[in-house]
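Archive entry: two folds, one per protein. Generate the first.
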Amino acid sequence: MSINVFEAEEILSQLTEEDFKNPEIISRLDRLKEIKLELERRRCEDDLIYFCVHVLGYKDLEHPVYEEIAEQMRRRGEEKSYNLILIPRDCMKSSLLTIGAVLQAVVKNPNVRILITNAVLEVAKRFLAEIKGHIEKNERFIELYGNIQGNTWSKDEITIKGRTVDKKELTIETGSIAHTKTGKHYDWIIADDLVTRENIKTIESKQTTYKYFMDLQDLLDHPNGYMDVIGTRWDFIDLYSMIMDKERGHLQDFNVFWKKAYEGNIDDADCHFNFPWKLNKAVLKRLKRQKSTMEFSAQYLNYPVASEDMPFKPDMFQTYTELPQPYWTFIAVDPATTQEKKSDYSVIIAISVTPDGKWFVRDIVRDKLLPGALSKKILTMAQALQPKYIAVETLGFQAYVKKDIKDKMAKANMMFTILDLKPKNRSKEDRIKNLEPKFREKEIFFPKSLMYTNTDGVELDMTLVIEDELLKTTWSSERPSGADKRDVVDTLAYFQDFVFKPRPGDIDEMLMKTAGLDGLSKFEWYDKEERMKAIARDRYDRTHGIESIDMSLFEEAIG
């Protein structure tokens, strides 16, 4: 005959004082208690919420929203092996998953190999410390499972008693973005809060986090390994947005659980609060007053919303896969302001402009380069894209770059027209903000991905770099952390000073006019200076009207 835990409790409750004096009944009673514990263990193995609430003591997890998360955990592996779970801050996601689900896994299978990883190693260690605390001191847990401490019991990693396999991976290990694992393979990786306020400050740190996530997949014991990525949104561009970006393909392998703090309008009577025991109406309204629009919407709605102070909104960014014809191509260069390699970034951007005035970004270089290396990068891009003009910012030391480009062109028998770029008493902020109408009208397009590996060996998606810089721009002087370095978008803004759109027949006509200029010697090249000026002047005359020409551009164009 089989009984459940409730029936066992009912039998025990009916026993009298005399019954407890009967040796036979006492023997049966001990057996019944063991049956009750076994039934309790079985329920804990099958019911994550019950285990967390009644054994671990996390009473706040006894709410329907956590049942939804537990159900997603149960379904993992049926079709997809990975989970992305996003819920608001301070809503016990780590208690449920990184502590509760991990403990449930080790008591079910002492041979399991789990990696707990976080943005910061010390945080991952704190998760492990809480797990150890339950094993060492939680009376209810010890009653059910006894002493399960294994031979390894440190701040970084532990083993569980009852292990029957001898593998280099321990039962639970910890890691972080800065403390990666190599040569190991785990049954389950739980990546808890890989995104933090600190690692969203620069695009480099965002890409480092994304690369770490990608590398974690090499640490799974395929084909049966699982991974759960859990956290809270922090920014328009963060690890979680990259996972949910359909173009990257991650969603083919991820189940996504995404929950806001509330549904509907927070001021409406029918607004539904998903975590009212933590985040009720009063708390959320206070947080909304104290935080920026973007930060509140990211951390408590898991959906970053652009504030009124942001000129550039995420929906303004357009991508392209095929470049329309015809077009003119232009290159803008913003050299670093000093000769030291590790000072500032130098930026090179190439765009093509179509007859309807749309800009298509073709290539971007953002690197810390010495002048000679910068000139080579510029001319390599120019040879590939054949720009009408190369425009170079020439303030102070930067003027050396223009001279170096011209010297290298002469030696290589190349012919490109070079213009000077000047701030003209405009601040970087003003130049960047002047791009807003063109973005608002959706007239600037980027490749879906534009990878560049810099001289330090760091690979970055330059499309994300420029999007990140633009989203950190504000109308006011209050800007988010990391907004001071926006070299790429500043260079993009310079195109407003010198590009123009081709008219019907312009490109064929220009090709005829410049035919025969390739292969000139250094002396022939300089002899053709006036001819190039005339060609440029003709283009501007017919495109902008003679009265709009800035003649200083042509005086500096080649000579």
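Generate the second and append.
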Amino acid sequence: MHPHFSVRLGCALVVLMALFASPASAQVTAFSTDVSAAIDSGLARLNLNGAYGDSNTANGCSSSAGNAAGLAALALLEKRANADQDAVSQGYSGATAADKLKLDEIICYIINSHTGAGFYAYRDGADLMALSVYLRTGGPNSAGALASLNAIFDRTMANQRTAANGYPNDGNQGYWCYNNGSCLDASTTQLVMAGLAAARSIYLSGPFADAGRLASLNNAATIARTAYASIPQQNPLTPTERGHGYNRGDTNSLQQTGSGLWVQLVGGADINTMGVQNYLEWIRHRYDYPDQDNANGGWSQSDYYWLWTAAKAFEFLETSGVAAAPGNLDTDDLGTLPPAAAPAVAGRLMHLDPSTVARPAVRGPGGAGYYASPSEPARWYFDFAYSLMTQQDAAGNFNAAGSWEYYSNQSYALLVLQRSVGGGCLDGDDDGVCNEDDNCVAVANPGQENRDGDALGDACDQQTANIKLNLASAPGVGTSGISNITVTGGGWPAVAIPAGDANIFISTVCMGGQPVATKSTAVTTILGTTKRATFKIPAGLAGNTYYVWLNGPAGGGYASTNCSRLLVIPAP
């Protein structure tokens, strides 16, 4: 039995709300239903523990979360609207009346208690995220939130380790320490960069656009990216992998290598940038969940910090609109390397199998195979989310083997389950529109022209580059007779495969119905038995949501054990 094959989209992943508004196209699975319940339970526990203050009292402006209030606020803002895999975050405008009262309370607390404080990286990075998402999604106190955001942003810029801030001729510039730029701390820098990624969405465009602050932000992000990409190798398992430790020069760890992956993406790198490939390779060689005990650099308290740091980066990569070049790694390559495979790492984990794991007892009865579904393939998100659910108790608490502080720990777990990027904005095509709002992520189209009113802008309707399907999000999108799809997975023979040897099947029924068959146009090896097959969507294929799978010559040699979804748009 071979691992599933995943189909990847490399042109544009957009919010397909108009196309997927009907109940028939909803992707609600047993797993997504349990994830939604786990999120609700975790948020309820935060509320019971006072994170959202006394939301029954107007203008109470209180929170027991203290410096983690920004993370707790973000977790409530990022709550998904329902259990659909493709559901969007509720933000402020989509929140219930009860949740709005909680948000009013904790945002008021942040504004009143943190705006005039001195710089503190962990707190300020979290507050930048919460305030940015609040502003973007219709939070009513826009004046107070914007003033607080600007004040926190300005002191953050004043405390980065740069020549302008008192660190001349320093080859290790770009970091933030706890209260200034005096150390080379990757942990604090990651939280600050998360805040800056969110603030970019405010300063880039819209009613709060600020060209001056945006320029400062982008410059700071570029300096930080350079620092992470330039770090020397440390006992590498291969000539190309590269990681990062708690401080620059410390023992490399999963959590801080995840930080470095994230920071480089916020600084403008993409999946094919050398530094991103170096860091992805380091993580792949030591892939671990729900903790990071086989590569924690001596910091065993950072389990959930590792999960969310990495999850943000993986989500960014999967929604960036940039396909991995032939021979490069992508997120689908995580969890596919057996521990004994070269380079051998004893603690390395492979993907969990949704068709064999049992339902966590806290979520109810359900034995092995409870989560089996064509819409729930093995992937990093299933690994992370399932592991978190197994560590949640009946009271809603997430109980990591190691953690620093309750409110941040609880929030990190929730943000992973919510697939949150903290409101982070990437503008991969430099057209002034964040990727998540851009109707054509891979091609600059500042006007967002869309003459046919479909999910893709005109610039992408004419796009012929490869597209990438993100299994953890909405279906991929391609145009019949135009778009090239790259199919990636493990379980192939460890030999060269001729270009046309993969049979591709497209049907409205997974591995059934009356599939349209076509041939691959190229098959490339990523590593060992992990390969990519490319095919063009057949001309004349009607617009619909399809399932895609494949097998080898005459059905032998290699075959999918699962399907992936693909939305086909008729050619203009």
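Annotation attached to the second fold: The CA atoms of residues 426 and 434 lie 5 Å apart. The chain is about 30% helix and 10% strand.
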